Please model this.
Amino acid sequence: MREGLYRVAFHNVHGAGGGVMHVARGKMRGGNSAFAFIGSYTVSADTVSVKISTRRHTADQGYKPLFDSDDITLVLKGKSQGDTVDFEGVALHLPGVTFKAMLTLIEADS
Model:
C-alpha cells in the first residue's frame, strides 16, 4: 500500500458513502462532509489490516451514519492491487453487518 491521498468508497446493507483518506506511516486520516475517519494500519505481505473510527464533525443530522451510531470503530482486512485496496470487515459494536470499502490512490506522497 502506497503512502498518499486516497478516494474512499464504502458500503454496507444500510447504504453507501465516500470521502478521502490520507495514508502514511501507519496512520489513516480523512473524512467526508459529516464524519472524520481516524485510524491506523499495518501491512504484512500483501494484507493490509486496519482499525479505524468515525466521529461526527457536523451537527447537520441530514447526514445519516451507515450504522446506528455516529461514533463507530471498524476492523478491516484488505488486499492491495496496484493503486487500489479492497477492504472487508465489521464494526466492533455490530459484528454481524459486513462493511466493504475501496481505496483508490489520488496522489502518492513523494
Q: What stands out?
A: The radius of gyration is 13 Å. The first strand starts at residue 4 and ends at 12.
